[in-house]
Amino acid sequence: MRIFYRRPLVLAAFVYVVCSLAVLRISYGAHQRLFGILLCAFVVTSCMLFLLRRHGKREIVSLLCLFAAVLSVGSSLCLFRERYERLQTYVGQPCVAEGTVTERLTSESFFTSYRVKITGFEEEAYSFGALLECEFSCGLQVGDSFVVHATPRAFLEDELFDEKRYRLSDGCMLVLQVESEQDCTVVEEESFDLSVWASRINLKQSFRLWRTVGMRSGGLTSALLLGNRRFLSNLDQFHFRACGISHLLALSGLHVSILVAFLDRLLKLLRASKTVRAVVISLTAIGYLILTGCSVSAARAVLMACILYLAFLWRHEYDSLTALCTALMLILTVTPYAVLDVSLWLSFVAAGSIIIFYPPINRFFNKRRPQNKLLRICTRPLTWPCSAVAVGFLANVALLPLSAAFFGSFSIWSIPATLLFSFPVTLLMIGGTILLVCPYVPFLGEACAALEAFILEGAAFFARQNVTLLPLTDTRTEILLGVLSVALILLAVLKLRHRAWSLLLPLLFVAVTVLSYCAMRFPEKTDWQVTAVLQDHRGEICVYTGGGHVAVVNDTYGAVSCAQEIKKVVDDAGFTEIRDVILCNPSDQATYFIKTLAETVRVRKLYLPYPETPKDMAITEKLCEVAQSYGISVYANADEKLLEYLSPSQ
């Protein structure tokens, strides 16, 4: 496969990502970091020149392009870092900032936060993203220009959540805290800003789709087409996460390719020339990117589509891997700290795996097509399902190591659910596009509502299954994941003579799945220790940890307010889920406790005492209904399970 062969931009992207990740760990200044990146690029370039047998003009030009690309993006990173370090010198000191509100994040009676664009700082012309936190209910709206007397605070860091990494990858360099309303002044209401204008258009069109489709609030159509999840319930979003198809809600190559293919087909029907189609589709794709908020996955897909049509206009050969790495370099030039963003890694690794490994698989099956014409016609309908399964499998294999590093689990239903919902999602997006242009098409709204109901109910069905998310924290599983990562890199980089090595990927995938399933179904006996005791006027809640798991014993009659405290304890302990929740005294309030806790952190099993009275039976039935909607397995042996945590050693 040899992904670096005659692909200088692919090698440049690889060199830059490795060097930047290494240099970002160094605590030196911006100039030293830039020197480090350039030194690494020079060493790699020199090694490549030395290894080349022929120093032809083409090879020299390619390597110079590699060096220039690394220099450009590396300079952007260091300039970004230098500005960030200069702004950090103001932490804890009162200052004056001017800017524009781009997004309202939270709004409560005692706290309001915004994402803002700063245009002036301490009477100097500045332009950077920031987070504005008001210790009161603030009346600023999206698009308002303001002047604030604020105090910057340092980024928070703990074992689980690194705010600095999260904010910088999102382009936010500073967090400004405002204590009173007198410190915030509105200079101009609804000033024009391209991102603000696009956000308002997005909200308006999303509301129009919600009103037109109507079924289940019409939120799924808005989320799929415009990336706006405001009208999609938290429960539906949980179902998508639980069955491993949350990527359908994140605007990516699937969504952009559907819209591009639909627009291209429409322009062909209008007999537009190839040049007109290329220009119109490229401009429409860029407009769609701005309208949907410029997410990393959408930016990657749109940039690759534009590169495809530019290659057509300039009559150059299109290479998908080069286009992917060109999009990566452009994104990192604009937002260099996005190299630390989880969504960027998930998007580019999945796309890269499909681009690298799918063509050999496709060629393998094409060579084995039946020679008989009748058999070819009969087997043609199987082409799309087989391709979809192969694409989903390759993306999931490449994302397994990342899932282990970032999330600690993966969904066993991801591939079948993606295969099942791909075609309805395509129809729903096409129907939503038509409704945006012409909302009065007869019966189209009802058809979209039916498709939406099918997808939501299907996601809920998969999420309710007992085996949904498999843990990737077992030691043997982690070793296999390391082997899988090395195998993926070697298969992509080396020129292998025996293609049978590619069979290693499905074997490793099956092995990881089996071990993860066994680790979940047959857990080892654990010595539990009390990590925290949360007091409530109704009783107490004990949080236990042991053997890499967390358990919660609730001895109250509800304690809804403790759900957030439990989440904080779980986060502080460095875990991402709760394995067992034991309710000693189920009540009507317990349903709200389970609902609040399940929306906050992943819960696997719920243990209830055996119901003895009709009232207990009704409460247990309601708890089972709530738990199953969140994919939680329910067991009626709480008294026996409780002995495991209340043993004499505890």
Structure notes:
This protein has 650 residues and is α/β, with parallel strands linked by helices. The chain has 22 helices and 14 strands. The chain has helices at 8-23, 30-51, 57-88, 163-169, 194-213, 219-226, 234-242, 253-269, 274-291, 296-313, 320-334, 342-367, 373-379, 383-406, 414-437, 444-463, 475-493, 504-521, 562-572, 588-600, 614-629, 638-645; strands at 95-107, 112-121, 124-134, 145-153, 172-178, 184-188, 409-411, 469-471, 529-536, 539-546, 549-554, 577-583, 602-607, 633-635. Strand 2 (112-121) and strand 3 (124-134) form a beta hairpin. The longest helix has 32 residues, at 57-88.
Outline, from the CA principal axes?
globular
Number of separate strands: 14
Radius of gyration: 27 Å
Strand percentage lies at: 15-25%
Look at the structure and give the mean pLDDT. Answer: 78
Main beta sheet strand tally, sense and closure: 6 strands, mixed
- Number of continuous helical runs: 22
- What's the end-to-end separation, in Å? 56 Å
Strand order of the largest sheet: 9-10-11-12-13-14
Poorly predicted residue ranges? none
Provide the structure class.
alpha/beta
Helicity, in percent? 55-70%
Question: What's the topology here?
Answer:
Elements: H1 8-23, H2 30-51, H3 57-88, E1 95-107, E2 112-121, E3 124-134, E4 145-153, H4 163-169, E5 172-178, E6 184-188, H5 194-213, H6 219-226, H7 234-242, H8 253-269, H9 274-291, H10 296-313, H11 320-334, H12 342-367, H13 373-379, H14 383-406, E7 409-411, H15 414-437, H16 444-463, E8 469-471, H17 475-493, H18 504-521, E9 529-536, E10 539-546, E11 549-554, H19 562-572, E12 577-583, H20 588-600, E13 602-607, H21 614-629, E14 633-635, H22 638-645
Parallel strand pairs: 3-5, 11-12, 12-13, 13-14
Antiparallel strand pairs: 1-2, 1-4, 2-3, 4-5, 4-6, 7-8, 9-10, 10-11
Helix pairs in contact: 1-2, 1-3, 1-11, 2-3, 3-11, 5-6, 6-15, 7-16, 8-10, 8-15, 9-10, 10-11, 11-12, 12-14, 14-15, 14-17, 15-16, 17-18, 19-20, 20-21
